[in-house]
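queue> pop job 88
queue> type: inverse folding (structure -> sequence)
queue> payload:
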């Protein structure tokens, strides 16, 4: 027979008679008075306004220029040409001229922008095979069912890369020209190093094979290119054989979906090692030669090129500075109202107000 519990009975579950378990520990409860609350409100208002002004000044020190080329100038004929899908494989080039009034000092980033293109649609975002993009051999010719209907081409070959995201890859190309008194010259751009490190070295890899003598075209043998691509994945960059396949940087940039329907993606970075671009983009006349391939009329979209400098805060985005300023002003307004109420009713006894 076991021993009976010493505390058996109706009081067996009663907590110990200690300060902690009986909740008798010393405690501090703040008394919210006008003398303590109002200084906090005024302090928060000042902090928010100062942060907003600081961020706004920082943003205003950056430069950004957007040039819409959807059907501007000579691009109008290309826009009309791309309305007919039968012309998809026919090339079309156009030129857009613009002017930079003030020098873009420092590093200058060249982006392409799309308006009203919803990369954040759930079904669209799921239409990809990350196992295929990471270089798994079993996924190369057996893509995930998530890629439907962009999983096989018209010949029944598995598509690489499969899915709607890769199929809709932006494929316009650009050459930026600077026109000075000495003549016209091509603005040099770095076209590599535009991806996130983790994307380039972890998330996107070409399939690995034991025979190292095989070319990339032989590695992708037995696969088809996406339906709306003009080139196979192993020949996206004919000038740099190390920038082909799933590790092509333009492909990687596109595969990182945007959160909003209006977005821009990095195309290149100014090479400042060459005169006269050592200090940035000088003021003057410029033009962009465009290989116009990406159709936008089907989703009522628009295309643009964006030139931008950046600061520690990023590019030119006024949302956060304005948010801080508006929040600071609202807090200040509320503090003034509370001060007026306290000034008028603060000394009146509470019992008198309840009568």
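queue> result:
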């Amino acid at each position: 027979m076991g021993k009976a519990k010493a505390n058996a009975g109706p009081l067996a579950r009663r907590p110990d008679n200690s300060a902690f378990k009986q909740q008798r520990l010393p405690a501090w409860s703040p008394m919210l008075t006008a003398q303590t609350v109002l200084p906090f409100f005024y302090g928060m208002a000042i902090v928010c306004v100062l942060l907003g002004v600081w961020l706004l000044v920082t943003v205003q020190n950056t430069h950004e220029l957007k040039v819409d080329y959807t059907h501007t100038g000579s691009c109008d004929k290309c826009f009309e040409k791309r309305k007919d899908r039968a012309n998809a494989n026919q090339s079309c080039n156009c030129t857009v001229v613009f002017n930079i009034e003030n020098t873009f000092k420092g590093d200058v980033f060249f982006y392409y922008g799309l308006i009203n293109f919803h990369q954040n649609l759930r079904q669209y975002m799921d239409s990809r095979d990350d196992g295929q993009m990471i270089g798994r051999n079993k996924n190369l010719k057996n893509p995930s069912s998530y890629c439907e209907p962009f999983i096989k081409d018209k010949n029944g070959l598995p598509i690489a890369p499969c899915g709607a995201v890769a199929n809709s890859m932006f494929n316009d190309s650009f050459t930026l020209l600077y026109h000075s008194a000495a003549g016209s010259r091509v603005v040099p751009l770095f076209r590599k190093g535009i991806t996130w490190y983790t994307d380039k070295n972890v998330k996107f890899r070409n399939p690995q094979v034991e025979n190292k003598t095989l070319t990339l075209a032989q590695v992708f043998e037995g696969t088809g290119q996406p339906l709306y691509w003009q080139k196979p994945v192993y020949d996206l960059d004919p000038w740099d054989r190390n920038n082909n396949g799933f590790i092509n940087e333009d492909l990687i940039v596109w595969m990182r979906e945007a959160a909003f329907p209006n977005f821009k993606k990095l195309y290149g970075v100014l090479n400042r090692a060459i005169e006269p671009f050592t200090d940035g983009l000088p003021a003057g006349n410029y033009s962009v030669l465009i290989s116009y391939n990406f159709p936008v009329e089907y989703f009522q979209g628009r295309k643009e090129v964006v030139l931008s400098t950046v600061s520690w805060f990023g590019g030119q985005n006024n949302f956060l500075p304005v948010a801080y300023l508006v929040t600071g002003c609202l807090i200040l307004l509320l503090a003034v109202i509370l001060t007026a109420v306290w000034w008028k009713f603060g000394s009146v006894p509470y019992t008198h107000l309840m009568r």
